[in-house]
Amino acid sequence: MMEGSLLVPSLPIALWAGLALLSLPTRVAARGGPAPGHGNRLSHEKSPYLLQHAHNPVDWYPWGEEALERARRENKLIFLSIGYSTCHWCHVMEKESFEDSEVAALINASYVAIKVDREERPDLDQVYMRVCQILTGSGGWPLNVFLTPDRLPFFAGTYFPKESRYGRPGLTTLLRNAQELWQADPGKITAQGSRLVADLGRRDHSAGAIPAVDAAVLATAARQLAGRFDPERGGFGAAPKFPSPHQLTYLLEHHHRVGDPHVLAMVEQTLAAMRRGGIYDQLGFGFHRYSTDAKWLVPHFEKMLYDQAGLATAYLEAYQATGKTAYAQTVREIFAYVARDLTDPDGGFYTAEDADSEGVEGRFYVWTRGEILAALGPQAGAEFARVFEVREEGNFTEPGHPSPDGRNILHRERDLEHWATDLEVPIGQLEERLEASRRTLLALRGKRPRPHRDDKILAGWNGLMISALARGGAVLGAAEATRAAGRAANFVLTHMFDGSRLLRRYRDGEAGIPGFAEDYAFLARGLLDLYQATAAPEHLRQALDLAGQLFERFAGADGGLYDTPADGEELVFRPRDVGDGAHPSAHSVALEVTARLALLTGDLAWRERADRLLSAYAEELHSYPAALTHLLRAAALLIHPTREVVVSGDPAAADTLALLAAVAKTYAPETSTVLVPAQGRAAIEALAPFVVGMKPVGGRAAAYTCQNFTCQEPTTDPATLVERLQRPPPAPAVR
Fold this sequence. Notes:
Radius of gyration: 27 Å
Strand order of the largest sheet: 1-3-2-4-5
Structural class: alpha+beta
Number of strands: 21
Number of helices: 28
Shape: globular
């Protein structure tokens, strides 16, 4: 699925051609639209995406009963358009069509037009994206769907040009033809919509019993990923290439279990290629959304919060697993970008930055050789241009232009060690010179018109970033990262609850939209990681509360979860999207959270919930495990042996901190850590009763290494603790 992309298969030809057969050259006068210069009904929304369309001549409604009731009352078709504020092709379609008076006239006369921000309403996006996938075999944004007055979808696609061209139907043609069909034979369209909705709610089950998920399924996923690996450039599959950090962290863990050097090499080659490539912002740090080519050079330039969280985690775990400081440096750089450009003054994290500035994708980020030399001087400029592959002819082509015009996407084709050898300069000296040049160019770039920033705060995506920062703070000893995670957690817990439930979106002083499963699951995981980083029992308690609400509001009869709450808005079907996509699914993270809570607390009820979740998703896992790598990683906590480390001591004392640091810096994904403070033990003992009796030894902080809540003799020596953690835990005699 392409985000904001034109790269989708052709539409179902029979369907749209059938619409085209009824096309008549109809002239329609606009009725009921906003007067020129005045806003439409989106003017009072909080979503930056909806506000971008607030002055279109299209008479847009936000999704809600007012629009739906009007469609029923006037027996009008609904034109539903879904996107997000940093989506390049959404901008293109707005400029071509939604700002066009002719298109507005067609829509306003015969349709009720509804705009939806997919990031605010992932439930609606899931439902109607599934429609698009059934009809076209793929999807993307903008997502445009035709509905009957009763919300039955009957036609869908992504980007449509205003007029038909290159084999793609034009929006004006589709609008006229759908309306003609509705007037001529509404029963036919209603029947088509009813069949689609029936398909949406159907799950194809295998004949017979579904086998349990076991270690063989985990190994199959690794083989499937290896079969798609690009041995020349890193990554998986051909262009376009997505980072998919959960695939990389899964492979790291698989290598940890089986010791296959090829698996580790796939991860390291991919991480190195992405960090050197144009997909990484070499000046301002942070990752762009994906690479449009196979070699990570030309990105889709938008930057998403969830990508920063996922990729920071992948590089962090690579640092734990290999000890290579370049990975740790990348994590610090991602955190620096998020702190500078995606952090609200009150601590929450913004959603994204756009790909476009001055109406052109990527313009903010590219450079000519002349600009580099003028900014840095001939010597430093030539050196920087050589290392970052800045050429006179350029390597960047603006959309609609046939060839490069001298502008360059900064990237490195080789590591700095190679350049230090070629330039005959010590690596440290080269790094210092390039860093000085980077700062100069970044300051100069900051004077350019900036891309739009989507400054809404989403609970779930903040949970992902809280996880990354909390883990990074513990592993790197970066107190500022831990503090940032704590501030964000406090922001969400303070500003995004309505007294009884979590709310999804906060912007401009107002929280709204009842949370979805991903909001509860992602925030619960963030709080668990914050607990592991700070050992503050309240974060474990908060995670337990959120996980409890997750199961109360979203559980299904089969033990699995739905993406929408039981008391939420009634949609044409209740979605359950298990696959891990741009970020892990709510279901994958829910399984991780429940398995970790079972290990941290010793409460068998959490283990039973985790087992039921895994059973509910077994069919999807057996179907194609490589599509659910985070779900498999969570499943490994139930399938493979695990270990608990209980550290007992004064949280502020050097001996306690040394033991906790030993755990944090060791790559041991099967390990959970509990801190029992020397004073005030009651709070953690109430949450994790199995730690009762675990006390310091001889006046020194002690670490107890446990499996199945049976513990070895404690140690006070960090080196001994590391040695224990580096040994895989033995398989239990009976499962």
